[in-house]
Amino acid sequence: MEFPLFRTKTDGADSHFDLSNPKDRQEYFKLKAGPEIEKIKKHIAEGYTFIAYLMGKKSSGKGTFAKMFIETIGSESVDHFSIGDMIRTIDKELQSEDSKKALIDFLKINYRGWLKIEDIMKMLNERSTKTLLPTDLILTLVKREIEKREKKVIFIDGFPRDMDQISYSLFFRDLIGYRDDPDLFILIDVPNDVINERIKFRRICPKCKTSRNLKLLPTSKIKYENGNFTLLCDNPECDEIEMVGKEGDELGIEPIRTRLETDEKLIKQAFSLYGIPKILLRNAIPVEAAKDLVDNYEVTPEFHYRWNESEKRVEVDELLWTFKDKKGSDFYSLMPPPVVVSLIHQMVEVLDLS
Length: 354
Ligand SMILES: [Zn+2]
Known about the structure:
It is globular and about 70 Å long. The longest helix is centred in the N-terminal third of the chain and has 24 residues. The relative contact order is 0.17. Helix 1 runs parallel beside helix 11 and helix 2 crosses helix 11. By secondary structure, it is an alpha/beta fold. The strands form five sheets. The protein has a five-stranded parallel β-sheet with strand order 2-3-1-4-9. Strands 10-14-13 form a three-stranded antiparallel β-sheet. It has eleven helices and 14 strands. The chain binds zinc ion. Zinc ion binds next to loops.
């Protein structure tokens, strides 16, 4: 399974964008995919929508890519939901009698399968995060989410998540007759090494829940104490509170290794499907090819910290982060925006808008 390399380099222009700044990002997208964005917007404005299944390993950035796509096209016409969020919303719905009744009414009309409604409700009530809900129930609940988002392009994250569900998703459109929209798969290839560093160095603000990364995406304020460097939240409301790592994050991908293997197998299966359009996104590029493919600011940097004792301040060095693949070749990891540029360009082709 080899995903194609995509070129986002701008010839001649020596522009630079801060891709973590939303305003800069808009300018960036305009430069790298302006005409394509307009084509997709026009297509949707003419009444065409579609459904995209996002398939990538856990922590591969599916949600981030969807959010940035929505940022460029507009939230009035594009929406995104994950199966995880869907289930969490149902947990909340079960707290109120009115919404619980609405859910039961929906299931009575739409659910087809072997479970009694009472058993489904019991299952939803007692659900632990470890147990997977049966596919026939997931299908019904996904249908409900699609119906809530009439006349919108929808990105679905977390479905399909096993082999059975892949087969269902292929015929989902026909099964539930959701619209005559096209559907497509967005497959995301991110090396485990990248996911490992993202988890290991992840830091979260206890107050505003903003997630950053000590190594790859620091805040503007860094504290030094007893040989350790800590990120301070730079959200004005948070008053420079210390960001912390979640328990277990220091283990990186170890606790989710099996899950990542299953995810990878699924992506491979989806990769070899016929008859459904696919968009292939990759995050890693060989260092050798990078010069011709991308601008430097599109590559994920890594940050090193030093304590300057005489001036009593932290000094920060920024380098391009390099990691090795299984064969020992050097790779860069792309920032999310260039991956989204590739997504937008491929979408124009898949939807035949060029
Ligand atoms: Zn904060």
